[in-house]
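fyi for ur records
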Amino acid sequence: MKQPTYTPKAFSSLLGVSKSTLLRWETKDTLPKPTVINGVRQYMPHDIPKYLKFLGKGPLVTTKRRQLFLNFKGGTGKTSISAFYGFRLAQLGMKVLLMDLDPQGHLTQCLGIDHTDFEFTLYNVLIERMDIRDTIIDTPMENLQLIPANLNLSPVELALTSMNARELRLRKSLLPIKDTYDVIIMDASPSIGLLNLNGILASNELFVPVLADFLSYHGLKILFETIATIEEDFDFIFNNIYIFLNHYNASHNICQRAKKALEKHYKKYLMETIIRQDTKIAEAASMGLPLHQYASASRGAADINSFIKEIFNPLPLNL
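which gave:
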């Protein structure tokens, strides 16, 4: 991953103004000056909120959002989508924190970061009461930060078992940073356990990726039964639950049948946006590059844009 920038043409298009108008604004003291690289003006994602305010648009988000990507079934593409979605939000100017809740550290790796290099993970926060701010690392983007994961996180389930208020420790640990970020995105492992329970109770929105097959469809029943129990036991409710189809191929009959079943039984939660099957997604993840840097013109990148517009509606940007 590298620091993304915008050319004047791309930046003005994103803001919905002409390039000439954008260049005239450079004389305004209230606006940041573009970086000049090899004689070419370059605009940074973290500058976007200031330009939107100048235009009388926005803000990018009206409420702080804590979002959990979770499915008890593995292989749904959850981690790569959550990583690429989080990067794209930051690329659009939001202040984003990504949190890796999986000891395998795949979210961390999807961003091209070597997860083995870090001493501290959420284990130190949840078990040793370390301030969560001490586990946050910077990325090449000013407005995108990360809490990495690696095998040091593995003992957390066993260690939590004997602790008081073990289900709420993550939610409490987020209090010092709850207003720091526009969006906090957590990627959970495909399992039922105390760490994922902490993730659920620390979130206010749930994202459930499903494949268009009937194993994924039947797995939703277990997930929703678990959520119903948690809501009852902890007097807790998500603000929003989003189910979305991933790796979808409309030419496959099984995909169409599974989609119809989801529309019939989970219509309340099913997103209109579908993430289509796209080899660029897997390629980007394997190379540790965000999709919008690896293949910004791909189907997957376009679908993530649509995904964002559906979640953040209205969005004061032209995607």
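The longest helix spans residues 214-234. thats all i got for now
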